[in-house]
């Protein structure tokens, strides 16, 4: 009986750790330990004992899971485990409209190999060089606008 209790408690402890170290491995090991406890209970004490072990462990695991979720959401020690802030940042500049920027000239800010950053009218954009490799501070012209970047050429 001591082996069954040990396996049972060890499985519940692994379920407890799973909330802090997610990945599923600890829960799988805990499940295997509970199955082992049920098999030992069945072989030594019969089917009723095995079902009792299974029902008690499933009930305690569910209760423990919901208590852990509640503690993480409502208690001070759970603050470091949850994300309370939202990311409201955006890209460097708004998306360029083709009719506004095609044909404008600027300068490469970074090495274009073949992508990099350019500056046009004081605004930074991600760009792709049709001319191949370009060094920084090279004059460029916008040829067209792709989905998320400008297509440029050296002038």
Q: Rg, please?
A: 30 Å
State the low-pLDDT regions, or none. none
How many distinct domains? 2
Largest sheet: 5 strands, mixed, barrel
Strand percentage:
15-25%
SSE order, one letter for each helix or strand: HHHHEEEEE
Mean pLDDT: 85
**Major β-sheet strand ordering:** 1-2-3-5-4
Would you count the extended β strands for me?
A: 5
Helix content: 40-55%
Distance between the termini: 84 Å
Number of helices: 4
Shape: rod-shaped
Helix vs. strand class? alpha+beta
Structural notes for this entry:
By secondary structure, the chain is α+β, with helices and mostly antiparallel strands. The chain has 2 domains: 2-81, no CATH class; 98-154, Beta Barrel (OB fold (Dihydrolipoamide Acetyltransferase, E2P)). Helices cover 45% and strands 19% of the residues. The protein has 4 helices and 5 strands. Strands 1-2-3-5-4 form a 5-stranded mixed β-barrel. A hairpin with a 2-residue loop joins strand 2 (115-120) and strand 3 (123-129). Helix 2 runs antiparallel to helix 3. It is rod-shaped. The protein starts with a helix and ends with a strand. The mean pLDDT is 85.
Short description:
The protein has 155 residues and is an alpha+beta fold. It has helices at 2-18, 25-45, 47-74, 98-101, and strands at residues 105-108, 115-120, 123-129, 139-145, 150-154.
Give short descriptive properties of this protein.
155 residues, alpha+beta, OB fold (Dihydrolipoamide Acetyltransferase, E2P), 2 domains, 45% helix
């Amino acid at each position: 009986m001591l082996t069954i209790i040990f396996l049972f408690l060890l499985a519940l402890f692994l379920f407890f750790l799973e909330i802090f170290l997610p990945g599923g491995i600890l829960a799988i090991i805990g499940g295997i330990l509970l199955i082992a406890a049920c098999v030992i209970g069945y072989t030594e004490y019969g089917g009723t004992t095995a079902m009792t072990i299974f029902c008690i462990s499933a009930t305690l695991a569910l209760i423990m899971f919901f208590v852990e979720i509640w503690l993480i959401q409502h208690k001070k020690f759970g603050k470091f485990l949850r994300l309370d802030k939202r990311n409201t940042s955006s890209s460097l500049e708004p998306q360029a409209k083709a009719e506004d920027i095609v044909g404008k000239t600027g300068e490469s800010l970074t090495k274009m190999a073949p992508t990099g950053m350019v500056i046009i009218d004081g605004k930074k954009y991600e760009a792709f060089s049709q001319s191949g490799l370009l060094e920084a501070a090279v004059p460029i012209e916008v040829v067209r606008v792709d989905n998320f970047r400008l297509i440029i050429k050296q002038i």
